[in-house]
Amino acid sequence: MANVIDIAGLPPERIVFSPSPLAELGAALHVLSEPGHHPGLHGWATATTSALKPDLADRLCEADFLWRTARSDLLLPAAPGATLAEELDALDRIDDETFVAAAFEIACSPSYTRHTPSPLVDAGERARVLELAAARGPRQAAFTERMLEDPDGLRVWLRRLLEDCDQAFFADTWRRTRIQLAADARHKAELLQRKGLAEALASASAALSLSDDGDSILVDKLAGGRTTAYGDGVTFIPTAFGWPHLIVLHAPGWRPVIQYPVATPELPPPAALELVQRRLEALAHPMRMRLCRSLARGPHTTGELSESYGITPPEVSRHIAVLKKAGLLTTRRRGRYVLHQLDLPSVARLGSDFLESVLR
């Protein structure tokens, strides 16, 4: 499954790699609200949370639906600015209906790729977002009701919240990360210019690729969607707070935006979703699970496994073929014998690969 961004006929100069302070603040706020997603940032999250003033912590809890389970489209600017203030000024210029509709967009929702009316003008959409907010908790429900009743006042409140975050912790964080993010964006832009989009995408993330015909950007995610970048183009935003997430803004009428985690040596490359699914399916069969018990302890031939488990050699061969196709076995020849053994590092990574896939 993949998100598809149609770029047929799009000039290369409309493909932009740029850091964004607002997008990075959104990513940092997500880490604070869901530190379990980001074990590598546990120290930063703990220190930052413990230093927050109670009033700011309470207000962050109130508005956390904007960045907790998914990232609001408002936090992924298509035209990144040089400063947070500049990007917040751009948000202020969005009309109320567009602002409120974008605030309630959930990228993993099946309806994300369909145009939905603003809850400010559509009673059905209003009822839907109020019900969703009620499920998140009373404070979130109250926040949502305030946004629907007084969008102008709530927008002022939200800007002040983000500015207070900047003063409390983000300005210092941004000073430390922006140089790395700017360097990464420059590197990707140079790759785009010198070697083409396929190289730039592969450098950004193993989950990004160019279609065979070169007309589409493919994003390997469980949630599928499709959009076009004919007009304004597409924006790629690096983040130091993103892994394991790869965020894609592909709502109708919006310029596509992809926020990708900056690669570091300690981060494993993401496994393809198809491979993760193939491995889970391979291990779901009870006989293959039993065969793995022996294969984990050492190398075995097909004949040895057939005798141990009371099944025919062709049956063993079929199970071995499935496990090999899933990349879970290593094979070596010793004379006329072929020895199979479980690839322990691949199996050990399966849990983290699955978790990374569903969080991506």
From TrEMBL:
PROSITE patterns: HTH_ARSR_2 (PS50987). The keyword Transcription regulation applies. This is Helix-turn-helix transcriptional regulator. SUPFAM superfamilies: Winged helix' DNA-binding domain. Keywords: DNA-binding, Transcription, Transcription regulation. Pfam families: DUF5937, HTH_20. The keyword Phosphoprotein does not apply. SMART domains: HTH_ARSR. The lineage of its organism: Bacteria, Bacillati, Actinomycetota, Actinomycetes, Kitasatosporales. Residues 268-360 form the HTH arsR-type domain.
